[in-house]
Predict the structure.
Amino acid sequence: MKIVFTFLFSILFLIQIFSQKYTISGYIEDAETGEKLISAYIFDENSKKGTVTNAYGFYSLTLPKDSIKLIASYLGYSPAEKNFLLKKNISYD
């Protein structure tokens, strides 16, 4: 019984470690005017997950621990790309 309990606990612990997710968040704004961009699309090319900025230009995206390639796009602007290695929650504007 003790071995079974230890084994199950170990499995649950490992699942928790390997399924860690982190949040990347920030604001998307025009580089010249500083105006926040509403409904800009933020997409991670590696995990194929994305989100849209809110009415304040803010985005928040939860992704697995990994390297990510974040792409921000907005109508009338060229897409912007940035590579990250997620090891903790970060804020990137």
Q: What stands out?
A: Confidence is low (pLDDT under 50) at residues 1-18. The chain has one helix and seven strands.
